[in-house]
Amino acid sequence: MAGQPVQKQISYLGPEASFTHLAAAKAFPDSNLLPFATIPECIEAVAEDRVDYAVVPLENALEGSVPLTVDYLFHEAQLYVTAEVLSPIGMHLMVHPDNVEADSYEAIYSHPHALAQCHKFLFYTYKNTPIEQFGSTSGAAKMVSELPERNIAAIANEFAAKKYGLSIVHSEIHDFHFNHTRFFVLSKTNHKLKNPGHEGQIKTTLMISPPNDDRSGVLHQVLSVFAWRQLNLSKIESRPLKTGLGDYFFIVDVLEDETATMMRGAFEELAALGCKVKTLGSYYTYRS
Ligand SMILES: O=C(O)C(=O)Cc1ccccc1
Fold first, then answer.
1. What tens digit of pLDDT does each residue of 25-64 get?
2. Of ligand 1's atoms, which has the minimum distance to the CA of residue 160?
3. Residue with CA closest to ligand 1 atom 1
4. Same CATH fold, 203-287 and 9-89+179-187?
5. 121 Cβ partners below 8 Å, 6+ apart?
6. Ligand 1 binding pocket includes 111 (Cβ within 6 Å)
């Protein structure tokens, strides 16, 4: 219809009421949010132009990176980060209302990161209960709501409990108080999402493969490229290149715009060192 703004389509790791759904709603309050069952499916949806943006979990403060997201972005996809969303994460154990009186469960289901964030709680409170991995926290909650006869439990957020009609039997069960997750908003084009509410600090994510001549001190040289230009790093992490044991690439977050003069100099020096650099672009942070 003439004059009507076209609604953006956003893929996210679903089903509804996942932590990723909450992050996607923060970045895109007025868009059409479409749930996908797995991280690769979310990413492929944007890579194949079926949606405008994909929102996927990247890293958790307690558990570290979500390897599927990092590896997919390095090995499989040519996408850009247009924003990151930082969200506080609260985990709750929930069951079907028919089973609130039960004091043991057939099994407890959740996303591997959620299970790991509640490791101590599960160890001390449900030592003999099988712990089962599921594709997402809300997917586990949905399954628990559909199978009351199985007396199973899920770990998910309070919106999932509400959405799927479950009763929370233990709240705030994550092992450490400061539990935040970082989500990436991905696009096929390199640009910055400038919706209202972002923070001022710009960040650039780079994936750096060092030269494979195995010379000593190469990581030191890579870091000095940033150090002497006073380019502040907020993260460095290694992931296997998958070409052989001991072969790694480095994910580096730099607190600068990739178009800044110092960054252009850094790219040139990294190339001169024989490094391959894949930039995921520069972006702002949103908090939910
Ligand atoms: O499973 C979910 O709800 C997700 O969105 C992935 C996730 C899992 C655990 C913490 C943060 C995000």
1. 999 988 999 999 999 999 999 999 999 999 999 998 877 8
2. 3
3. 136
4. no
5. 170, 173, 174, 175
6. yes
CB of 99 shorter than 6 A to ligand 1:
no
Please compute the mean of the pLDDT values over residues 213-241 and round it to a whole number.
Answer: 93
Burial of 61 (0-12, 13-18, 19+ CB in 10 A): middle
Cα dihedral: 186, 187, 188, 190 (round 10): -100
Closest C-alpha to 75, from 284, 226, 251, 270: 251
Cβ pair 118, 71 in contact under 8 A: no
Ligand 1 pocket check for 282: Cβ under 6 Å: no
Q: Which range is least confidently modeled, 25-39, 95-109, 212-226, 255-269?
A: 212-226
The alpha carbon of 79 and the centre of ligand 1 are apart by a number of angstroms equal to: 21
Contacts of 238 (CB under 8 A, 6+ apart): 248, 249, 250, 251
Any atom of ligand 1 within 6 Å of the Cβ of 19: yes
Homologous superfamily (CATH) for 203-287: ACT domain (3.30.70.260)
Q: Please report which confidence band the pLDDT of residue 3 belongs to, taking 50, 70 and 90 as the band edges.
A: low
CATH 3.90.1150.190 fits 9-89+179-187, yes or no: no
How far is 263 from 249, CA to CA, in rounded Å? 19
Q: Determine the CATH number of domain 92-170.
A: 3.40.190.10
ipTM of this predicted structure: 0.97
Give the tens place of pLDDT for each residue, 255-284. Answer: 999 999 999 999 999 999 999 999 999 999
Tokens describing residue 269: 């020096």
Q: Is 136 in the pocket of ligand 1 (CB under 6 A)?
A: yes
In sequence order, which ranges of 147-217 are alpha helices (DSSP H)? 158-163
Say what the pTM is. Answer: 0.94
CA atoms of 196 and 26, how far apart (whole Å): 10
